[in-house]
Design a protein that fits this description.
The protein is α/β, with parallel strands linked by helices. 43% of the residues lie in helices and 15% in strands. The strands form three sheets. A seven-stranded parallel beta sheet has the order 3-2-1-4-5-6-10, with helices on both faces.
């Protein structure tokens, strides 16, 4: 990636995808610097041979200092929640932190930037798996998180065309696997299903990909991606019922067989969100999640496969690794 003495800067390394990217970089011999907030959970950094600098993405001065001298920058960090009490704040945070990192990388002379977007910025295709051409807008996407990623992706594209930002955009689908510490919304589904707390479900479709394949895709995008282009880093299109059945098989449980229509659940989702605001917890059933379940979130990684040499393993391997990690984490608690 560079000559001896260069370093790579990674945001989000305390989180799920960022930790996988940082570990992949270290594994191939890169000198890695990662950013962590003073109060962040750093369990994903244990055993990682990387320099840890304390800073906050909302503090431009600390970011400028941390990025200075980096040959390459991977901006992986984002607030990934499908429900928040203040949606406007989530949008502002994800956009402005992206602006801060991109500006610091550009000012610091970084030669290559990989920006982690999401398939959330792409519209589902009723005719089949969606590709990179189906760019969404703030008006066409559902929920604060998706809207924030659309706005941030458009910001990066504008900086590429107007300021010469040397950035490649990657759009992971739904990563699964080890070290999902928070966990992510998908990780919550896995945890609940492992515990037998999902006796019924709303059928929908999603694209599951092992987090380590997503990390490998980041490195391939850095090495071979075209500046300003976006690349879907996906895996396998799977129905939620099939995913739950595989989790049940891994845990020796009976899979759920009751499929619930979306319509009757909307009143419960509204009540759930109202209670969440009052009591300060993250609801499992939300209005936006029901709205999103209307569509199959299926995607093709053909462009990344052709241009980057990207490959992804079967989804069952990612679920097995995720289930094993969650089980071990529960035993250690």
């Amino acid at each position: 990636m560079g000559t001896r003495g260069d370093f790579v800067f990674v945001t989000g390394a305390t989180g799920f995808v960022g930790a996988a990217v940082a570990r992949a970089l270290v594994a191939r011999g890169e000198r890695v610097r990662v950013l962590a907030r003073a109060a962040s959970d750093r369990s994903n950094l244990i055993g990682l041979d990387a320099e840890v600098v304390i800073g906050d993405l909302r503090d431009p001065a600390s970011i400028t200092a941390a990025v200075a001298g980096a040959r390459s920058v991977f901006h992986v960090a984002a607030d990934y929640r499908l429900w928040v009490a203040d949606p406007a704040q989530l949008i502002r945070d994800n956009v402005e932190t992206t602006r801060t990192i991109m500006a610091a990388a550009l000012a610091g002379g970084a030669e290559r930037i990989v920006y982690t977007s999401s398939v959330a910025t792409l519209l589902p295709d009723p005719a089949g798996p969606a590709d990179e051409t189906r760019a969404g807008s703030m008006e066409s996407t559902v929920g604060a998180y998706k809207q924030s990623k659309v706005a941030a992706e458009r910001l990066v594209e504008a900086m590429v065309s107007e300021q010469g930002l040397p950035a490649v955009i990657v759009n992971p689908s739904t990563p699964i696997g080890p070290r999902d510490v928070k966990p992510t919304p998908t990780g919550r589904i896995i945890v609940e299903a492992m515990a037998g707390r999902m006796p019924a479900y709303v059928e929908c479709g999603l694209n599951l990909v092992h987090v380590d394949d997503v990390a490998a895709g980041h490195l391939a995008a850095h090495d071979h991606g075209r500046i300003g282009e976006r690349y879907i880093l996906g895996g396998q299109d799977v129905a939620l019922g099939e995913m739950l059945a595989e989790i049940a098989r891994l845990c020796g449980r009976k899979p759920p067989t009751v499929r619930i229509p979306r319509g009757p659940l909307f009143p419960f989702a509204h009540i759930n969100e109202m209670m969440a605001r009052m009591l300060g917890y993250a609801p499992f059933l939300t209005v936006d999640s029901l709205r999103m379940a209307k569509y199959n979130m299926f995607y093709t990684s053909a462009k990344a496969e052709a241009e980057l040499g990207y490959r992804a393993r079967p989804f069952a391997e990612g679920l097995a690794d995720a289930a094993a990690w969650f089980a071990e984490r529960r035993r250690a608690a």
